[in-house]
């Protein structure tokens, strides 16, 4: 049974659409709007103001005024209190946020309710605690004389945060929470495909009592709003999550200003099964790793390395489990997999599936749209493939798993590392010594052993190689939102 959309959401969708700049909801300078779709029905959820360069400029100026004014005078303790209050409000509005996320992204409501929303609240609460704990130090200098030397951690300034469409609320929290805890102000550009929870968050930021201009939210298209944010001379740093191609372009465009940049750019993550792995744990874990959030996950375990000796036993059980994945409307609590985000993205995923078949990979299951459903659905798909196949090398960002048999473990590790990515990886084994050895050999920012997609605000997130620069989450994130200033006092 599909969950009824409460009047609260209908009311929000009827009024949503304005940009949030300087503590006010305003129309775009040219009055233009764009449609936001429900991927499960292909219908329009809302029409949202389309930010362009003049709107981004106003948002940056508002953020700068707040930095030089009320926010710059706000104590660390008060910053922490406001972040704590925002976490509380997210929890109080968890049902509405989860429904909005399901409607706009297409992810199952149950995933948004149990993962996205609680983790977003956790991030604001975690970094609230850091507001009073991120400090400099007194330095034991050796220069002859009588000197006091110490360091200060100072905010960078105005942060430009650009978030993707697959986890819009959660990844916004990854960027907003540490930036605000460190004393910065933010201009957030959510994806034009999924701006709704960011705009709902703007209302919660208002209710929490943040000073005007501390957070500004400007939905719009990348070449218009995103590029204007990247090129703006008063933006001190860009934090971007998205594709490697866009991330590289941002890095190049930021170079002339030596603008600080952190990037999280996706992956083609290996999931390695060892011969002694518990079959039941593996089947459950691989299903989650490959098909959570429709496979629209930068860290999806989309390359599964299985010992040839293990393959037959594993395959029968696993394929039966994949067949039982229930696709349906995101607001049906029984749904385990929703639609992809758009028709364009579905076509991209289906093109990869076609390419896999053309290159000789063996299609074991799925590989087509679900004709019984209206939206942008693709059936969960499993290939038996080789490393040379495109589907085993490039990020598909959909419900497509490639199974890659191997003979020896060292060979599997070498093959697992043989891509341009290095975001995450999984290892499955009952021999923890062996598992740790493999984990240390993998070129990835995060390695999970006997689990997958385990996230916590305390644990840093980021990639090796072309999976990005810098880290989000944990105290490591704060390093990317502050400058270190050295101060000397001559006491002679």
TrEMBL record:
It comes from the Bacteria. SUPFAM superfamilies: ALDH-like (SSF53720). InterPro entries: Ald_DH/histidinol_DH (IPR016161), Ald_DH_C (IPR016163), Ald_DH_CS_CYS (IPR016160), Ald_DH_CS_GLU (IPR029510), Ald_DH_N (IPR016162), Aldehyde_DH_dom (IPR015590). The active site is at 264. Residues 25-487 form the Aldehyde dehydrogenase domain. Pfam families: Aldedh (PF00171). Keywords: Oxidoreductase. Belongs to the aldehyde dehydrogenase family. PANTHER family: ALDEHYDE DEHYDROGENASE-RELATED. This is Aldehyde dehydrogenase. It comes from Thermus brockianus. The lineage of its organism: Bacteria, Thermotogati, Deinococcota, Deinococci, Thermales. The gene is dhaS.
């Amino acid at each position: 049974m599909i969950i009824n959309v409460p009047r609260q959401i209908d009311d929000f969708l009827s009024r949503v659409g304005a940009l949030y700049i300087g503590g006010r909801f305003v129309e775009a300078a040219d009055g233009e709007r764009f449609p936001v779709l429900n991927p499960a029905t292909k219908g329009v959820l809302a029409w949202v103001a389309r930010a362009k360069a003049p709107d981004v400029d106003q948002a940056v100026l508002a953020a700068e005024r707040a930095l030089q004014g009320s926010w710059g005078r706000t104590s660390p303790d008060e910053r922490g209190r406001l972040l704590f209050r925002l976490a509380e409000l997210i929890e109080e509005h968890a049902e509405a946020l989860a429904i909005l996320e399901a409607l706009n992204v297409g992810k199952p409501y149950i995933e948004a309710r149990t993962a996205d929303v609680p983790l977003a609240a956790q991030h604001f609460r975690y970094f609230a605690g850091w507001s009073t704990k991120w400090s400099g130090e007194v330095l034991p200098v050796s220069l002859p004389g009588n000197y006091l030397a110490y360091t200060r951690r100072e905010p960078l300034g105005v942060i430009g945060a650009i978030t993707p469409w697959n986890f819009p609320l959660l990844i916004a929290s990854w960027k907003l929470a540490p930036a605000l805890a460190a004393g910065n102000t933010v201009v957030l550009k959510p994806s034009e495909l999924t701006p709704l929870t960011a705009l709902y968050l703007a209302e919660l930021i208002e209710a929490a009592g943040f000073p005007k201009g501390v957070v500004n939210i400007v939905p719009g298209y990348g070449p218009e709003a995103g590029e204007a944010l990247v090129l703006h001379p008063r933006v001190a740093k860009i934090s971007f999550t998205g594709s490697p191609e866009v991330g590289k372009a941002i890095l190049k465009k930021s170079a002339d200003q030596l603008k600080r940049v952190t990037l999280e750019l996706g992956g083609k993550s290996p999931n390695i099964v060892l011969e002694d792995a518990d079959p039941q744990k593996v089947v459950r874990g691989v299903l989650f790793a490959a098909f959570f959030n429709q496979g629209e996950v930068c860290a999806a375990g989309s390359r599964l390395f299985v010992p040839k000796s293990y393959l037959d036993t594993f395959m029968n059980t696993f394929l039966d489990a994949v067949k039982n994945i229930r696709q349906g409307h995101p607001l049906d609590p029984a749904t385990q997999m929703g639609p992809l985000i758009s028709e364009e993205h579905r076509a991209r995923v289906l093109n990869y599936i076609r390419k896999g078949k053309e290159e000789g990979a063996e299609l074991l299951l799925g590989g087509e749209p679900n004709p019984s459903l209206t939206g942008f659905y693709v059936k969960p798909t499993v290939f038996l493939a080789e490393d040379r196949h495109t589907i085993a090398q490039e990020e598909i960002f959909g419900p497509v798993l490639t199974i890659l048999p191997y003979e020896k473990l060292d060979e599997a590790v070498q093959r697992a590392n043989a891509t341009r990515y290095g975001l995450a990886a999984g290892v499955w084994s009952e021999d923890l010594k062996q598992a740790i050895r493999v984990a240390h050999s993998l070129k990835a920012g995060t390695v999970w052993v006997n689990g997958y997609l385990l996230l916590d605000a305390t644990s840093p997130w980021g990639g090796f190689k072309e999976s990005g620069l810098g880290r989000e989450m944990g105290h490591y994130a704060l390093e990317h939102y502050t400058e270190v200033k050295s101060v000397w006092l001559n006491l002679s």
